[in-house]
Specification:
The chain is an alpha+beta fold and 149 residues long. The protein has 5 helices and 4 strands, in the order ααβββαααβ.
């Protein structure tokens, strides 16, 4: 059984208690709402995309420590990136939290690597990936709310 210390690392707790970019983005030109009905987590991700880059990003909502810190760290990781770069980062992050073979050898994820322990708790994978799926929907300009079950 994995150790809970692996899951709740200091950086995760810090971003949960003091989430970065946690506000409505008034000048957003894209947004999406994501829900996890199994646990009640719900986030809205706001984007301002200019010339194919994520010029600004923010989020609002509620969720557990894992989902809120993942959303916070995601906003910091994708700001300034192109949509393709953000989607590549999503793919690498998702491989990490799902424990896919070779994920540890994936290109450097920086502080996002703190979520590696999530792979030992399958029920928490959806918590860690909710904001990321919501980001992807916003990038694809999907109007409907997304639900991960």
């Amino acid at each position: 059984m994995p150790d809970l210390k692996e899951l709740y690392q200091e950086v995760i707790l810090d971003h949960s208690k003091s989430p970065r970019n946690f506000h409505k983005l008034a000048d957003a030109n894209r947004k999406a709402v994501g829900r996890n009905p199994l646990c009640g987590d719900q986030f809205t991700v706001y984007l301002r995309v200019e010339d194919g880059r994520i010029a600004d990003i923010a989020f609002e909502g509620q969720g557990c420590a894992i989902s809120k810190s993942s959303a916070s760290m995601m906003t910091m990781a994708v700001k300034g990136r192109t949509a393709a770069e953000a989607e590549d980062l999503f793919d690498r992050f998702h491989a990490l939290v799902t424990g896919k073979k070779g994920a540890a050898e994936a290109p450097d994820l920086g502080k996002l690597a703190a979520f590696q322990g999530v792979s030992g708790f399958p029920v928490r994978v959806k918590c860690a990936s909710l904001a990321w799926h919501t980001l992807k929907a916003a990038l694809e300009e999907k109007e409907a709310s997304i639900s991960i079950e």
